[in-house]
Amino acid sequence: MTASSAPGKIILFGEHAVVYGRPAVAVPVTQVHADVEVSASSRPGIWVHAPGVNLDAELNSLPSDHPLAAVIHNLFFSLGISPFPPLDIRVNSTIPVASGLGSGAAVSVALLRALSSHLGHTMTDEQVSAFAFEIEKLHHGTPSGIDNTVITYARPVYFIKRHPIETVKVGEPFTLVIGDTGIPAPTKQSVGDVRRLVAKNNYRMERVFDEVGQIALMARRIIECGHTAMLGDLMDQNHAYLQEMTVSSPELDKLVRAARKAGALGAKLSGGGRGGNMIALVPPDLAEAVSRSLLEAGAKRAIVTQVP
Ligand code: PMV
Questions:
Q1: What 3-state class would DSSP assign to 29?
Q2: What secondary structure does DSSP assign to 92-154, as a single string?
Q3: What global pTM score does this model have?
Q4: What is the Å distance from ligand 1's center to 163 Cα?
Q5: What does the pLDDT read at residue 107?
Q6: What pLDDT shows up at residue 140?
Q7: Residue bearing the CA closest to ligand 1, atom 13
Q8: For the segment 69-84, what is each residue's pLDDT rounded down to a tens digit?
Q9: What average pLDDT does this structure show over 181-206?
Q10: Average pLDDT for residues 151-174, to the nearest whole number?
Q11: In the predicted model, what is the mean pLDDT of the chain?
């Protein structure tokens, strides 16, 4: 049996603007993860079990653009494996789906690693990330590539589309609370809406993306210097620009306000927006109080995570 695990992720700064070539900062979240086990099967065919999404099926019965089927077919094709060996593939994930925590990319990364090493073709991180990016296109349409990158390398990254990966050294650990609205929000939709906004008001949106890019650049410097309390203001500013991009929602804004009121140093939505998650930067001793306030304000779950 061959097993692999991949973490979730959050975007600290720069979502959406990253699709338009501006930098973004993202970190892995190890409290949630996707786990894949591959083993030889006693029956013919490739059996995919993913109890979290009620899937228990033979590969050929899945539509070819199903994300799991696409990973398996594409990998076998690129490795030149035919006929397919009989396999049992188990996929388990604690990462909430469609919530900005990178569940799709994490499943792809864990599946690619487990399957390729089971078949004796261990892939490099670069290959895994590039492969997962192709699968992301099925989920998102026009992804920037930030999810597959931060999840493959499992380290804080400063990401610019189509540029080589730059990892970020964290000068001093900092604590975040992640609040989940519980509202599933397909990234494809919010990315499409921002695209329509760009088409309508190109000049203003390019200025907004420039500002967000500057915020991401400053945030990177602050994280590296270890002056992390200064990130709070940048989060608040980034959230205001995301509101202008129309990707926030009353529920996200409510959680952001609740976190600030409970003592967070700053807060913003994280990921595609409309639903999904928000994040708050907190002094470690206030993490519990902020989590409680988020739950009282309607969050379905609150996760405390430290960026080490
Ligand atoms: O996968 P999510 O919901 O964390 O969103 C990804 C961030 C976007 O910038 C909105 C899209 C992208 O591909 O970068």
A1: strand
A2: EE-SPTTSSS-HHHHHHHHHHHHHHHHTT-PPPHHHHHHHHHHHHHHHHSS--SHHHHHHHHT
A3: 0.95
A4: 17
A5: 97
A6: 76
A7: 143
A8: 999 999 999 999 988 8
A9: 95
A10: 97
A11: 95
Cα of 224 vs centre of ligand 1, distance in Å, is 23
Task: Residue 280: name the closest of 235, 219, 226 by CA.
Answer: 235
Contacts of 258 (CB under 8 A, 6+ apart): 293, 294, 296, 297
Which of 101, 147, 148, 277 maximizes ligand 1 atoms within 8 Å of its Cβ, making it the mutation to test the pocket? 147
Rounded alpha-carbon distances, angstroms, from residue 242 to 83, 178, 257, 273: 48, 17, 15, 8
54 alpha carbon – ligand 1 mean position (Å):
25
Which atom of ligand 1 has the smallest separation from the CA of 101? Answer: 4
**Residue 273 CA, ligand 1 centroid: distance in Å:** 9
Structural domains of the chain in order of their starting residue, each with its CATH number: 2-159 (3.30.230.10), 170-307 (3.30.70.890)
- Ligand 1 pocket: which residues have CB below 6 Å? 11, 15-16, 18-19, 100, 102, 140, 143-144, 146-147, 187, 191, 271-272, 276
Assign residue 275 a region: left if phi > 0, alpha if psi is -120 to 50, beta otherwise? beta
Cα(42) to ligand 1 centroid in Å equals 40
